[in-house]
Amino acid sequence: MDIQLVRTVLIILLVIAFLVIVSRRTKENLRWSLIGEAFGEKGEDLLKDAARLEAADLDIRVERGVKTSFLFRRFSKDLDDRVAVYVLKEDLDQAEDILASRPRR
Hints:
Keywords: Membrane, Transmembrane, Transmembrane helix. By secondary structure, the chain is an alpha+beta fold. It has two domains: about 1-30; about 30-105, Alpha-Beta Plaits. It is built from three helices and three strands, in the order αβαββα. It has helices at about 5-30, 40-55, 90-100, and strands at about 30-40, 60-65, 80-90. The chain has a three-stranded antiparallel sheet with strand order 1-3-2, covered by helices on one side. The N and C termini lie far apart (about 75 Å).
């Protein structure tokens, strides 16, 4: 086989693999809806809300911090205490009802 043909086939395979990975990841991320995102003490309150949602048997996803590379870590010192809570879109109405009936502190 010609080396140019082999390169072309490998490039096509890499593009197809990339498209499959990105489409699967996008499909998975579209299932989730952001409930809240906060920093510091408000983030801790948001974690308490996430625990309430989890106690109500809702599927939730909690993200903590922001992933940054080694080079940009010094610029992102305030981003380490970030908290984001996601819930499945089909459970969004139920989650909003639970959070609306928030107990007084």
